[in-house]
Amino acid sequence: CFVCGESGATITCRQTGCDRSFHLPCAVEGGCVTQFFGLYRSFCWEHRPEQAVEAAPEESTTCLVCLDLVGDTKSYGTMVCPACKHAWFHRACIQNQAMYAGFSCFCCPHCQNEYRFLMEMLTMGIRIPRRGPSWEDGGAYEQLYERHSRCDASECLCPGGRQQAEEQGPWQLLLCCSCAAEGTHKRCSYLRNSTASWECDSC
């Protein structure tokens, strides 16, 4: 391994004529780029791809992820969004964001560009796992997707109870057209069968 000097380095630079090899854990320390897509090509510090964006950070530019200062130029450790050219970040910071966001939610933290940003980051060696965001693991947000499904009238007149709802007629459940957090059967709020929308008292 040209980085640590130990044996067992199985990754070789894909540039023709270059025989530098390195371990995957040594890649960042050696300024190497490994592309985690397509042919899974790897490059040493001399032959790695560089960002083509013509932009340079200002003197007090901070990383949008950690809010610490970035370097004064594009480099292996300092990257920029190719779409807006205003979002600067450290390589390690955007790599951490990619691991949390996953393929489906990874985008520029400034302009929210998805495709161009994602393709550039993949080319520059950022690993983006093909999964959803880690903050949704374990069903943490499942309740946000549940639709309100009970009558909240002060007196529910439905013989089947507050949870019963029919497609049409007096026991059709209408949700508040403003907040959707309260519901009522048409009969319980003395609404006509032709009524299509209803607003709760709070709204």
List the helices and strands and how they pair.
Elements: E1 11-12, E2 21-22, E3 33-34, E4 42-43, E5 78-80, E6 88-90, H1 91-105, H2 115-123, E7 173-175, E8 183-185
Antiparallel strand pairs: 1-2, 3-4, 5-6, 7-8
Write structural notes for this entry:
The protein is mostly loops. It has three domains: about 1-50, no CATH class; about 55-140, Herpes Virus-1; about 145-200, Herpes Virus-1, CATH 3.30.40.10. It has helices spanning about 90-105, 115-125; strands spanning about 10, 20, 35, 40-45, 80, 90, 175, 185. The strands form four sheets. The chain has a two-stranded antiparallel sheet. The protein has a two-stranded antiparallel sheet with strand order 3-4. Strands 5-6 form a two-stranded antiparallel sheet. A hairpin with a 7-residue loop joins strand 3 and strand 4 (about 40-45). This is PHF7 protein. GO terms for molecular function: zinc ion binding. It comes from Fregata magnificens.
Give the key terms.
Herpes Virus-1, elongated, little secondary structure, 8 strands, two-stranded antiparallel sheet, 203 residues
